[in-house]
Amino acid sequence: MAKKYVFIALDVGTHAVRACVFSLGGDSALWQVSEVFSCDISLDSPQSRHIEQSPTELWQALTSVYSQALNLATSKQLYTKDIHVGMAVQRSSVLVWERISGQALSPILSWQDTRGYKAIEQLNATERKNITLLTGLRPSPHYGATKLALLQKEYGLPAQTRPITFGPLAAWLIKQLTDNNTCDPVNAARTLLFNRKQARWDKSLCRMFNVMHAQLPNLKKSADYYGHIKWPNSEHFNKHYSGNAHLQAVLGDQNAAYVAMRHSQLPAAVTFKKPLVMNIGSGAFILGQCNKDNNSDTLGLLTSLAFSDNNNEQWLMEGTVNSAGTALSHWRESLAEPLSEHSLFAQLPQWLLNDSHCENNEAYFYLNTAAGIGSPFWLTRFSSSAQVFVNDAGERCTPSIPQQAAAIINSIAFLLVANILQFRQAPEASRYDGILATGGLSRVTGLIERVSDLCGLPIFVTKCHEATLHGTAMLGSNFMYKPRIQGHIVAAKKSSPVLLQRYERYIQLIKMQAL
CA dihedral defined by 123, 127, 129, 132, rounded to 10 degrees? Predict the structure, then answer.
């Protein structure tokens, strides 16, 4: 029997933690992919701009799914002495913990948390320019720096008597799994404290944001040896297993999805030479490969590290829509008679079709401010609970349920298009010849058609609905795992004048929010 290779991928998302087992060898020459083990996690908003998660709840969720995956990986069918593990984590979430024990001392401040917005507003032009030059990112309260500063102000004094570490959620999870205070560069970069050119924490940025450099975790490559994983204390785990598990890849969730889309085997019909990747989940992201010194700030976009290993770095130009699936979820839950997810997606195709036949003077718009407005506009001065619908004149109104749903989908499409059009002004513009789409909302055909028609690019909608898990397994296995991805192509059609005018009016309404 051939030697088995077993890899467990972990996906720590905004609303759930997932795990999946990828195995090769034994009696099969093909990769086997298990079911996905999943456990929901909650978000708490104790006050405006404060979005938190419980470290205990999140760790219990991760332990549960990891233990179930381990139990499968250590079964008679897959038994092997060494198990390889990789983890993708929601970026920009931060907390504080005891350096030695790893005990969490604060809630997890979510990437959606913007309580540090005043510190961002107080930055002068020179400071803003320097932040972007060093990090590739725009100053934003969604990133970790201002939240870490507030945590250090609240929890920093006991450090004189007990060592404390402040950092990204990924670093705390690494500590829990391996007992090492280490962080990967992708999640480190989302703090605004990471120097992208020198690949280290930047002391000048730490001083700017009043964050103590010495209390940040150590850094490794994305694909690197993070340590031996301690066995979880869980009823799900096979305690008779005597092998070892090793954590050997950590990156951001969006980055893992990008890896899955760009490094998988695509059908022969997909002939894109240099596609963009569009991932539409809780938030939505447009990602395109670029060089390290790319100056995307002039386009209102970001430059970020996709991943790194001992031989390679891949860099991305990135556009962000802060609220996609989250906007739909908040809206559904806010209705007098809440609408189930199943019911929404069953009726959405007809609602979007009706909306496409609507004249512009009868159209409604959703100002997608549930988590602030990201690139290329960068507007953050909103309440996270806002649900704002307006008519063509910009007046607040209350459309029907179908009209509200269509307006939210349109807002996601229009913000994605605004980012894609910025990509098409970049030096690499002539080479972006298509889009690879993934994420839960990529199944909404009306959304994909609107994006394709307005930006003029064909879109390959993949059936890889767990792209983050697949990308994590690919990077962590040094691309031994390289799956074939199926899907269908949505060809770009000339957008109707009505749709184009509605898009242009939406952008006008968004820009008016900055006045």
Answer: -90
